[in-house]
Amino acid sequence: MDERIDQLAQAVADLRAQLATAQRAAAKADHYVEICNLQAAYGYYIDKGRWDDAADLFAPDATLELAGRGVYVGQERVRAYLHHLPPYGHGVLYNHMQLQPVIHIDVDAGTAKGRWRSFMMVGALNAEARWGEATYENEYKLVDGQWRIALLHGYMNIYTEFDQGWNKGGVKLLRSIDGLQADLPPTMQYEAYPEPVIAPYHYDKV
């Protein structure tokens, strides 16, 4: 009788362990979807010049660094940076597609890191038309139960004229935003294509 009780107790303990593992996996899957939605929402807001909506996706102490222009610290500085970008309107194309995610989540810490590829179509009617492609190495964290961007770092790989193509070279990176000084210098000095750019990886293996 005692042996059977022990066997039942072990079986219950095993089931509890399996349930805990399943719950943890389910929570991680939910977090993955939420982070993907967060990053995709950022891209859609940037597409249409919805700067305040995009800034609201960032944590209060977040940082933003794009194309070697320096680091902007804090959500309101992120907001200011975005508002200095060209306004969206007639004849303006500013597509920023968020693709190819590799995401690692620390469920216990409520943090995550993600690597993305952003493909860009940028231009203005009767002015310019350009292709762009960048690698994002981002960090995320839970803020009041919601995933927010804690660090957004876009490494510009290539920016080139649409009608010339990359076989003719690339456009030099714009190193500053008119009227808005960065809070910190760039964390990496580089030039885009035709120079090779390898954004640091947050992972060694998946």
UniProtKB/TrEMBL annotation:
Residue stretches in coiled coil: none
InterPro entries cross-referenced by the UniProt entry: NTF2-like_dom_sf, SnoaL-like
Span of domain SnoaL-like: 30-151
Protein name in UniProt: Nuclear transport factor 2 family protein
